[in-house]
């Protein structure tokens, strides 16, 4: 039951994360996500076999303290934005912001109504997973959302070189995870937020 609850909380959270990207892009004038039918909470439109199912299952079976995953990225086209740099920054921030809002809502509900059983377990995992997703996605390594924020502040001449890191992005991220660098930076922040929320 806990396995099902953890996966359900993760899938729900990453779907909302991706929809938030698309919705903000849509509000900024980009119809790409809407036209691709991705502004929906229907999981079938977003589930990525590896990122939404296989990786989370492997992490759970390996008893990993961190549960991560991803959905199919929601497409957007920055050419529709009046201010491209600002638009890309806002779209990038939308995903982690949605995770923080979800974490706060789950924490508030759980504090106000200390549910037991499956409901309490689901809310606790929603809070935990969304805190981790928000912090992790703000790492400024392409293709994570934090890189879109950094791009907004970089001089235009530096953007292509920075984006060229994307092909090595996940190798860099997994390398930093393996070396414990990300744990040393991210876990204290996540722990502090979870103590406040829960």
Quaternary: single chain
For the terminal residues, how far apart are their CA atoms? Answer: 22 Å
Number of strands: 0
- Secondary-structure class: mainly alpha
Large-scale geometry: globular
- Helix share of residues? 55-70%
Give the mean pLDDT. 90
Report low-confidence residues grouped into runs of 5 or more: none
Reading the helices and strands in chain order gives HHHHHHHHH
Main pleated-sheet profile? none
Our estimate of the beta-strand percent is: under 5%
What is the alpha-carbon Rg in Å? 17 Å
| Domains, number | 1
How many H/I helical runs? 9
Protein model, in words:
Helices cover 68% and strands 0% of the residues. It is mainly alpha-helical and 198 residues long. It has one domain. Helix 1 runs antiparallel to helix 3 and helix 4 packs across helix 6 (145-153). The protein is globular. It starts with a helix and ends with a helix. The relative contact order is 0.13.
Jot down its keywords.
9 helices; 68% helix; globular; mainly alpha; 198 residues
Summarize the structure.
Helix content is 68%, strand content 0%. It has 198 residues and is an all-alpha fold.
Set out the fold topology:
Elements: H1 2-27, H2 32-35, H3 49-61, H4 84-112, H5 117-137, H6 145-153, H7 159-163, H8 169-179, H9 181-197
Helix pairs in contact: 1-3, 1-4, 1-5, 4-5, 4-6, 5-9
């Amino acid at each position: 039951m806990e396995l099902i609850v953890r996966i359900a909380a993760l899938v729900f959270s990453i779907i909302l994360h991706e929809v938030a990207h698309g919705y903000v892009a849509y509000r900024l004038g980009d119809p790409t996500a809407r036209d691709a039918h991705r502004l929906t909470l229907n999981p079938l439109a977003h589930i990525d076999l590896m990122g939404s199912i296989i990786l989370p299952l492997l992490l759970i079976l390996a008893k990993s303290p961190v549960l991560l995953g991803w959905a199919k990225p929601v497409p957007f086209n920055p050419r529709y934005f009046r201010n491209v740099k600002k638009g890309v920054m806002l779209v990038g921030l939308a995903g982690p912001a949605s995770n923080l809002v979800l974490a706060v809502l789950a924490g508030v509900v759980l504090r106000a109504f200390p549910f037991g059983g499956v409901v309490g377990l689901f809310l606790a995992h929603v809070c935990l997973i969304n805190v981790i997703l928000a912090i992790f996605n703000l790492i400024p390594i392409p293709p994570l959302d934090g890189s879109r924020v950094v791009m907004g502040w970089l001089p235009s001449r530096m953007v292509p070189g920075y984006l060229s890191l994307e092909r090595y992005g996940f190798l860099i991220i997994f390398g930093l995870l393996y070396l414990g660098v990300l744990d040393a930076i991210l876990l204290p922040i996540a722990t502090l937020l979870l103590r406040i929320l829960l």
